[in-house]
Amino acid sequence: MTRVLVTGGNGQVGRSITDLLGDQRFQHLTVSVADRATCDITNPDAVRRAIERFNPSAIVNTAAYTAVDASETDEAAAMLVNCDGVAHLAAQTGRRLIHLSTDYVFDGSKDGWYTESDPVAPLGVYGMSKWQGEQAARTNPDHLILRTAWVYAAHGHNFVKTMLRLGAERGNLRVVADQIGCPTSAHDIADAILRLVDIDATGTYHMAGASQATWHELATATFELAELDVAVEAIGTAENPTPAPRPANSRLDSTALASATHVRLPSWQDSLPAVIDAARSSVPSRNHS
Q1: pLDDT in tens, 79-101
Q2: Which CATH architecture has domain 2-287?
Q3: Catalytic residue among 65, 114, 126, 205
Q4: N or C: which end of the chain has fewer CB within 10 A?
Q5: Total-model pTM
Q6: Residue 152 annotated among the catalytic residues of the structure
């Protein structure tokens, strides 16, 4: 049996891993999913206590400070979790470290899909904190860094959940149409991570949904699947200013991971319906048939 410690148990991916623990494919794994109370990665003593308690051969770090806009005014908080916390986990040498990173390490200026060999150029504090976290993870010789993008789930805080809430409240919405990325289901990320635990792959790989969309396209598809009657107006990023800049292009080419491990994530078109079905209870019945 392979013993695995998962941090960030209350996050989208952490909760999705918990949901998969009964899956027969993963019965060879002994997985302990820890929340901040059980393993606060910002506290090196707490990390050591968790390692002593669970004695994992692999650590999966899904814990992160993901408040992109708040990072601009609270850089210390972002760095504490996304960089220092990763360093505390990486210091547990002799144990495999699987670490989740993000498309925000890129500035989005590339015309095509980003590969692992493209230079990083974070636009804001969040992206920089995640890039520094990658560098911390690399201090553990047995590391696997997985960059993903545009994560959504039936639980937690994400774009799809926000659209469901707003779509139930309003008949008209304005959504950015000039940012493009790879929407990725947290369930698909969790499933892939559990498959990768015992696969001999190290280094940095992209692991995102197999197809692209704009936020406007994703919102439109969400409302169609949820049977919500919402008119969605396409707008530009300039019409929706945010404290932190967003990459205009967040498309991650995940073919290298598929070639090395045979692990490939589905498209968002394949994965979104199940998420909408799971989240339907949060959609008020007045717009829901």
Answers
A1: 999 999 999 999 998 999 999 99
A2: 3-Layer(aba) Sandwich (3.40)
A3: 126
A4: C
A5: 0.95
A6: no
